[in-house]
Design brief:
Layout lengths: L8 H5 L5 H15 L5 E5 L5 H8 L3 E6 L2 H10 L5 E3 L11 E6 L10 H13 L1 E9 L13 E8 L2 E12 L2 E12 L2 E12 L3 H10 L2 E6 L8 E6 L3
Parallel strand pairs: 1-2, 1-4, 2-3, 4-5
Antiparallel strand pairs: 5-11, 6-7, 7-8, 8-9, 10-11
């Protein structure tokens, strides 16, 4: 998915994504839900920026991502954690965690409710008995506007990246078409990516949590306006 742009991901998102504010919210929520919360698994960890900041808040963070370049970058940022390449809908780690996070709408990349349910079951299996899962969803049907276009840019250390994005909607699937222009110390190249994310209603997501053995509450605002599901195990 991000194979063409992984090395430039932080450069693009640093221009408009406030990781520090999000992590402050997550840290406060986890401490409120469980004052003893310490161990965290970041599912779909990306480049490990959430993990890095959570570590600064006193958490011990591991992570998984399906993109090997992301895992390498995340591990370099977070040498105290364990970061591995894995599919969030089918993974098995030897540890149970006080919290499992799946942020920045990563869950949408599973595209189907069947795979979402499988992922949530994996989350449950990796939770401690009093653990909590925080899942930030993608948009539900009817919210995204087809053919809407955006441009995001970032520049640092002699590298400038500009990303043009356009949205397509096909039923319950959204498709993000990314076109990059990368100027790396005067060497310019262009690459493209296609990202597909499933569009699920809140009710469908709640049913998926229940099917996976999790009781979920839904905060419609969440960290960034996309909402947030807060879930616990329904049985031992």
């Amino acid at each position: 998915m991000f194979s063409a742009s992984a090395e430039y991901y932080d450069l693009i998102y640093a221009a408009f994504k406030d990781y520090a504010a999000e992590v402050l919210q997550v840290s406060s929520l986890l401490r409120r839900l469980n004052p003893d919360c310490r161990t965290v698994l970041d599912v779909g960890c990306g480049t490990g920026e959430h993990a890095r900041l959570l570590t600064n808040h006193g958490f011990a963070v591991d992570g998984i991502d399906i993109e090997p370049a992301f895992v390498r970058i995340a591990a370099e940022k977070n040498p105290a954690g364990r970061f591995v390449v894995a599919d969030m809908s089918d993974f098995q780690l030897p540890t149970r965690y006080d919290a499992v996070l799946c942020l920045f709408s990563s869950i949408g990349y599973l595209r189907t409710l069947e795979r979402v349910t499988r992922a949530l079951a994996c989350f449950r299996d990796h939770l401690a008995l009093d653990g909590v899962a925080l899942v930030e969803p993608w948009f539900p049907p009817g919210v995204l506007e087809a053919n809407r276009e955006f441009i995001h840019s970032g520049e640092a250390h002699g590298v400038r990246v500009s990303r043009h994005s356009r949205t397509e909607i096909n039923g319950t699937l959204s498709r993000l078409l990314f076109e990059y222009e990368i100027d790396d110390h005067g060497e310019v190249r262009r690459v493209s990516e296609v990202h597909e994310l499933g569009l699920f209603t809140t009710e469908e997501m709640m049913q998926a949590f229940a099917a996976a053995g999790l009781h979920a509450d839904h905060d419609p605002e969440g960290l960034t306006g996309r909402g947030l599901f807060i879930a616990r195990r329904t049985q031992v």
